[in-house]
Design brief:
By secondary structure, the chain is mainly alpha-helical. 47% of the residues lie in helices and 5% in strands. InterPro entries: Tscrpt_reg_Rrf2, WH-like_DNA-bd_sf, WH_DNA-bd_sf.
């Protein structure tokens, strides 16, 4: 008996990439710093730094360095299809499924009929995602997670507590 992977399950990387794009879409023309995106979306800065080059290569975002720099959508949100984002972030998984890599330990993977079926199902899955854009997610009420509200409501307390203190000495040094 062979065990099939589920190629229609998106990875965390893809979910994070979509959330980053939605955050940029909501920001409009304003550029967002990677650290701010990480904080607002509750994604580690390391993961944001890993995902941004993938999004740049895919033509979804553009980055600017220096003062006033940051991350912004490279094209309008209604032109960025979710299926395209999945193709960019799940490239290896999709390639593996097309080459018959969905069944483990099979002697003749590419020739197995189940691999063709899974490949067709994967194409159907992505074609459904192609019908939706980042603008759809950015504008929907359900996409507006409480993450932003939580981040604003739970501002970090100041590191040092300011306390008024009395400057009168507690003891006197007597001169003898």
């Amino acid at each position: 008996m062979y065990c099939a992977e589920t190629p229609m399950q998106l990875t965390k990387l893809t979910h994070h990439a979509i959330r980053i794009l939605v955050r940029c879409a909501r920001a409009g023309k304003k550029r967002l710093r990677a650290a701010d995106i990480a904080r607002l979306e509750r994604i580690t800065e390391y993961n944001v730094a890993k995902i941004v080059p993938i999004l740049v290569r895919g033509g979804f975002v553009q980055t600017t360095r220096g003062r006033g720099g940051g991350l912004a959508l490279a094209r309008p949100a209604d032109e960025i299809r979710i299926g395209d984002v999945v193709r960019a972030t799940e490239r290896a998984k999709i390639r593996s499924a097309r080459k018959g890599g969905t069944v483990r330990s099979a002697p003749n993977k590419a020739g197995m009929p189940i691999n063709q079926m899974v490949g067709d199902a994967l194409e159907a899955f992505i074609s459904v995602l192609d019908q939706h854009t980042i603008a759809d997610l950015a504008g929907s009420k359900s996409a507006q997670e409480p993450v932003l509200r939580d981040a604003i409501a739970k501002k970090k307390p100041p590191r040092h507590k300011v306390v008024a203190c009395d400057t009168t000495p507690v003891y006197r040094i007597s001169q003898a």
